[in-house]
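Objective 1b. Sequence-to-structure analysis of Putative intracellular protease/amidase.
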Amino acid sequence: MHASRFIPSLLLLLLSAWPGGVSSAPAAQRIAAPAVTERALTDARAGQTGSLASVAQAGSQQPARGSQGRILFILASSKVHGTSALPASISFGEVVNAWDTFQAAGYAVDFVSPEGGAVPILDSYVGKDMQPRLKDESIMNGLRNTATPAQIDASRYRAVYYVGGSNAMYGVAEHPLLQNIAMQVYERHGGVISAVCHGTAGIVNLKLASGHHLVSGKRISGFPEEHEEQDAAYFKQFPFLIRKTVESRGGSFHVVNNDAPHIEVDGRLVTGQNYASATPVAKAVVEVLRQLAEPQPKPGTAKG
């Protein structure tokens, strides 16, 4: 072989073998590992370290190139109402309708619940239009493998979304780690807090760094106690009432007297009244995030 051709080939071979040298792997194989593997999992207060595998399973879909970021769905773990044997469930449609909206807008979705793992889905909470989605593994895998609060790094999320369903009344509102996650997203990272239907129960105890309740002075919606079956056994298990608690915390509670969608948007807080409000809530969150992402004009700068 001619020397002028042999020397460059020899140099390339040496560089390939040298640590940090030229790689022969295709570019697609040199992309860094998914961000989920970089999540901080330790939480001293919980005394847990979490599992990379379970968080990866809970990460229902990785953001595509050009993704807007991630939304964290907060669900309840309780399978019964309070101390009774009465079955309770998440609202599957409130997951699906919001999921579809966020995915269409370019956001990835993760799930968290107080206990982690599978959350309850009762057939009575799944309408005929939603039944085919029970076979949608992109959603169902996440609902079967929700992360624990200790496995969540709040800095990764642009918003949280509290899902409704009758079990949302139990185990979420009083959970300190879930409270901390939501308020980090809201105060430290300038994100959005949202909730729909009974999911509004999850925000009633949230407090700002100032010590004031998040709902204080805010327009709030959610499923009101006057729309409940107040003579039913499940209702007697409720640890608190949504409207009454919001108003006792200084919030202004707003609903309509039918099943029509109704939402309230107050700054970076978005709440919806009922099942039909899941899609409008998600759309409003997307719009608020869009506005937050827009460059703000400098003080004194006149618009053209």
